[in-house]
Structures are given as C-alpha cells and as structure tokens.
Amino acid sequence: xxxxxxxxxxALEEFLKKLAPHxxxxxxxxxxxxxxxxxxxxxxxxxxxxxxxxxxxxxxTTKSLMDFIPWFLAPSQQAYREAFxxxxxxxxxxxxAHAYTRENANAIDLNRDALDLSQAESQLLxxxxxxxQPDLCLxxxxxxxLYAAGKGGPSASLxxxxxxxxxxxxxxxxxxxxxxxxxxxxxxxxxxxxxxMGRYDDTxxxxxxxDTFTQLGTPTILFEAGHIAMDYxxxxxxxxxxxxxxxxxxxxxxxxxxxxxxxxxxxxxxxxFYDCILEGVTLxxxxxxxxxxKLGISFRETLIENRIHFLPEMKAYxxxxxxxxxxxxxxxxxxxxxxxxxxxxxxxxxTAILDFIFSKIKIx
Length: 364
Prior knowledge:
By secondary structure, the chain is α/β, with parallel strands linked by helices. Helices cover 30% and strands 29% of the residues. It has two domains: 270 residues, Aminopeptidase (3-Layer(aba) Sandwich), CATH 3.40.630; 88 residues, Urease, subunit C, domain 1.
C-alpha cells in the first residue's frame, strides 16, 4: 500500500520557488551534487538555526516547516520577524530525501558525523552554525511507530530532547534553556496530545550534532515527529509539529519558559509497539508448524516508483508477545488454513493475508 510520505527535492522546490529569491541561499552541494539551501527569514536579534531531513526519510518536520514559513511571513506576525532571525535548512540530506533513505549517498548517518565531519552535508551544517552563531538550534527528525510515551503509555506522537553535553548529563546553562523551552511547548500542546508526548533518550553521544552543539554552549532542541493511530501519512502529526513550532516561538517572544522539572516529568520513550498483531495465524518456522499464533508485524517503508509503500515485515510470534499492536486483527477462519513461512525481518508475501491486513488498516 502506498501513501504520501515521500518528499524528494523536486517536490520541495515547488514550495521553495514561491519564496522571494533573496530569502534563498545555496550553501553548497550534497555528495550527488544536489543543492543544499538555507532559507533566511526575519531581521531580529535572536538567531535560530533549524535543519530538517538530516535523515532523508524523515519528512514530517519538513512538511511542518512548509506550514510554519507562510505563518511566519504573514503580515500578522511582524513582531516575530522583528524579534527573530531564522536560518532554515529544509533538506540537509537531499540525496537521502531523493532515495528515501536515512543515510546520505555515502551510506553515512549524518547525525553520527558531528566529530568526524566526513561528509559534505555535515561540513555545510557546521560551517553554517559557526558563521551564523545561533542562540538556539532546532534539530528536526521523525521517529518510528514503535515508541510509546512512557511504559504502557499511548503512542509517542511527539517527542523532544534537550541533548546532554557530557557523560554525566550535566544540566548546563544551554541544556537548561532547552529543557525550559521544551516544557513550554509541552504545556501548550497538553490538551491536544494528553499523555502522548515523550522524552527521548539523553545518553551523551558526541558524534550526534545536538550533543555537540549543546557542548559548544548553544541550547539545542531535538524534535521527533511520531505516530498517531491511523495516521501513516503523518498529516495529523504534521499539524502538531507546526503547533509546536508556533508554541516555541511564542514562548521565546513572551518569555514563557517553565522549570526544568516540567521537562523531566515528560515520560521516557519506551519501545512498545508493533504496527499490527495478527491473532490466530498458522506459521511454518523451518520444520515446525505453529497454529493459533500471534504474529507481530512492523511496516517497512519502501520507495517504489516514486511512492512510499508500507510492506508488512514479520518481527516475532508466539502465544504471547512482548509488544503491543497499534492494530490487533483477528485472522478470519477462511485464512487460518494458510501457512505463513516465518522468518524474522522478512516480508509477508501471501496475497490473501496482505489483502486482509490492508482491508482493516487504511494506509492512504
């Protein structure tokens, strides 16, 4: 089944060409010579550096920027433009965006390249940071459907992190500012997403860009666009990320920060979900025939002919499973006679089973 998560550079260009030419600056090129652009908005003293699609297959925060930028440029937001100067890299990894891969064209995770700076894209981000000298950095990402907001909690629709600056996870002045701003965002969205916002793991990793920038003294906020039930296109999540952007800048403009304790009260992300659990299936595991099993399935996002298809991938089976399902489906008797050849991380190929899954879970 296909959906509309794909945002290649050519599609983003349709949005960018509507902006005034003076707002657009080409910073350099990617491994495959695609331009990496920076959008510069506002004229205020407080400088914010934002970058999205460092991982090319994480498009939701970029789409939210496509909502935020017109909002920021609207006549009614003059106070924001006078208060802030923004530098926005909407696709730091255009090659990955084109191929719909996490890594760049050299198969390098750019968010593990902060120390080595081995990639052209990493070097461009670091140069932009050093020249712009931002007061705040926003590192914009998307997370998989497997996370819950706390043990036993609902799906983590949004998650945030104020990255650590050392192994002791010291609350440095920069990190404290990021925590306070995240708390303000979470408070603003609490009614929209009750209990569904999480806190990402804060283990220090100097190879990660957010940790490095925090270590250099710049408050940095990691945004993670997560999953909402039946929203595999992430359009609902997109709207909440947009609200989070607006809430952040309102907090900055009107100094609406909350204490660090409010940040610490956000539940830790917990790995808890399969996309789907099929109950009552028959499985062939090598020489063993297993009847009346529960099969845990995660969707593998795959680019096929310029569309993202969500392909069911087998993860685990048993009479009980460690994880919950976003969807739990009872296999009809007519399909219980089908034997599915189980192999971990392999796709389901049985057409009847696939048709049943997608008759119940509407991806589009």
